Amino acid sequence: MNEILSLNDLLHLNDEELKHTKIRFCIVPGGSNDDPIEVFKRNPEEILGWLFHRRKQNHFNVGENAICLVRLKNDPNLWLFATMQKVVRDLDVWDSYAYEGKEFAQYKPLYGRVIIRFHKGRYQFRNADTVVDEFEVVQVLPDVFDDNPFPGYDQISLPWREVERIIVRNLMDWRNALEHQKGVYVITDRATGKLYVGSATSDKGMLLKRWSDYVQNGHGGDVELRKIVEEKGFDYVKDNFTYTLLENWNERTDDKRILKRESWWKEALDSRKHGYNNN
């Protein structure tokens, strides 16, 4: 039988360091849709806002170590080792981002890669010296955690925030799949049901570049989508738009063929009369 590997077998904290280390367990707050694992996936730096948020009591003292564990979705006892910071400053604020931290260079390669099994009970914070040996390491990932790998061209239907995550995080499986592909896609406004059919050609920089444009400003230069951003704001796009790939073609395909297919889909989906296409 294999011996259990604990988190401290990777961190090698001595007894004195453990006495000055606290662990925060990040889970979805009651009544909230803001899932910290999605925050981490979108941008690992944002998880510091969860680790260092102070509400009614003081959580950390200057000089302490702060470990952030983020609960995974499919098992309440599985946690991702998101970061470890030295608390270097108390910002003297409440119900806000309340501390300044400094990461540990020696542990940075482990951030987002170590999955731990632990039953936390009702506590949001624990002192490391009382529990760290109970943190069973179940997996060390080859790369930073991501549970949405490229699914295949016929399975792409993503809300705006997922497209943003792919672009901002520069996820290589997605990048490799999209950066040399032309295609026809449909954008769905989930609030109204209206559609916009678009295309990615060599002139527009392939699928990766085209969708990067939508992440940047919400409209990608498209006239009707620009009107929506101007009238309703960029957050409307972020909250309501979904991007679905209808067809993909390799980079050697003539752009004229792509444009003909785009026109066909506009007719098929009636996106000129009842959607956002104006040509």
From TrEMBL:
Gene3D superfamilies: GIY-YIG endonuclease. Residues 180-278 form the GIY-YIG domain. InterPro entries: GIY-YIG_endonuc, GIY-YIG_endonuc_sf. This is Excinuclease ABC subunit C.
